[in-house]
Amino acid sequence: MTKMVMLGPTGVGKTSLLAAMYPQLEEHFPGDGYQLVPEEQTRRVLDNLRHKLAKLGAGGGSSITDMQVEGTKNLQEFNFDLKYANEPIADLSLQIYDMPGAYCTENNGTEAIKTLNGSDVSFWCIDCVALMEKNGKLNDAINQPASITDVLKKAKLNPNHTLCIVLMRSETYEQNKRFDELKTRIKSTFGDYFTEHIKSIKQINKVFYCSVQTTGNLRYSYHDQEQAVFIKHSELEYSPKNCECPVLCALDRSIEEAVFQTLNKMDEISVNYPIIRYFLNSFNKEYAKCVRLKKRLEFARGKIAFYLSEKDKRFFEWR
Ligand SMILES: Nc1nc2c(ncn2[C@@H]2O[C@H](COP(=O)(O)OP(=O)(O)OP(=O)(O)O)[C@@H](O)[C@H]2O)c(=O)[nH]1
Ligand SMILES: [Mg+2]
Description:
The chain has helices at residues 14-28, 40-54, 102-105, 110-116, 128-132, 139-143, 145-154, 171-175, 179-196, 245-271, 280-283, 285-309, and strands at 2-7, 34-38, 63-65, 76-84, 92-98, 121-127, 161-168, 204-211, 218-224, 227-232, 315-317. The protein is an alpha/beta fold.
């Protein structure tokens, strides 16, 4: 079981990302024979939300503000199984926690810290519009990076934790060829948080950042005082892009762990057969099952790495 947590203040789009993500994962999952299947309840809740998101700005061309979908009220858990072909048991299970943004920013982040305890992966969602517009002067108020780094530092993260920084609402910059500008801005604005705080958290061993478009059709238009106003691109329908990438990057870690556990199990079995261990595959069913599992997990891991490398401009390891 891999525990993943969505992090970020209220309104940055954590729940919208989850809603946009899973059909993309189902469609693009890069391991042949594999499927990432949501549990029934997870599917119901996320489908419902996605329908609302798809209708944002449905009038066409009209300006819309964000905050049109209700915020998350309580901690929610979404479950996915990674299943291979007709195998009855899932090879991996993912548990994604989505919290109200206030958990990160109120009461010294106590609730966020509780949720983060024992987690393997966290997705730190950042609103790009706050970062890029008005010279980034709303970034501190909207993205609250000090609160997020604080909860990450205080939580008991699992060793080998992966942190994925997710750049939300990037439509305006991706579609207008301003992605390099966005990349430079994230590096210059969040660089200090990275070197002064994140780097010192020894449980975190990988930091990625990745840009996603959770609607694909809403672009930033102007600010009405502190409120960003978006416009629906007249020719584009709701078409999320790259929302599968954060979970795929996190899966790399889970698969690595699962391979490690499978190898341990193979060692445990073979201890009882010291002389004939090289032939175990042909007569010990349990051992043969492990060999097959290890092979297909490694294959899927390779496919995921290849898939993400093709997305090179949207997906980076933070150095
Ligand atoms: N322009 C724009 N608006 C979006 C996008 N994704 C979500 N929204 C809007 O942003 C609002 C906030 O999104 P949520 O997914 O609810 O944000 P959240 O981080 O889960 O917020 P809390 O649950 O309150 O912590 C929603 O009401 C949507 O209307 C996007 O990609 N672009
Ligand atoms: Mg939410």
